[in-house]
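Checklist before submission:
- one chain only
- standard amino acids only
- sequence pasted in full

Submission:
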Amino acid sequence: MGKRAWLEGGLMAAGVLLLAVFGGVLLYRTTASRLALREFDSVQAAASAGDVSDLALRADREIDFSLWSSRRVDAYRTSQAKHEGAVLAVLRLVRWNIRVPVIEGTDEVALNRGAGWIRGTARPGEPGNVGIAGHRDGFFRPLKDAAVGDQMELAVIGRTMTYTVDAIEIVSPRDVRVLRERTTPSLTLVTCYPFYFAGDAPRRFILHAALRDGPAGTGNHPTRSPSREPETASKRRNQ
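Returned file contents:
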């Protein structure tokens, strides 16, 4: 009887610990995404006022640049804008009015903060096919109800682009075809499928959207730099 009591007590303690860990992950996801959105919005507002000329989403006012050359300052800010974990854009799912920070990379840290830009695809704001991955049990859960014709917005510093969903498909995790460039500038969202599945989901849910003509989708696009082959969807497990 004593061993049974110890066993029950151990199982109960393990259950409490797992619940605490789960709660901590949810708290981090909520807090981190809100901070990322707030950071992006502050830089966006400063850019609109003409106070910011770079995409670095962090406050560097404490750094003394007085002895730096202008070229070195520009190089520093450019590197900061492209560093691991940088907020590149904000994705808005118009139908649900959900705003998601888009973080550089698709590791767990990035996907817990928001959605992740898939390396090898066009960077947000560039022409081409911008690939963004997200967790099926997080920000991208509403995509289960997405339909052709839905609209999305992708905001980068100084510009917001509107996309219209034109295709939805379910593919193998290794199908990188979905991330290749299309005939028009596009946005491709990737998450795991089925949306409600215990363990590693066997398929990927792909949502394609084309850049819409009009004021929100216009602007001078930078020249696309050569990119590497997109990451395989199998590298983004449990999204």
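Reviewer check: The two ends are 44 Å apart (CA to CA).
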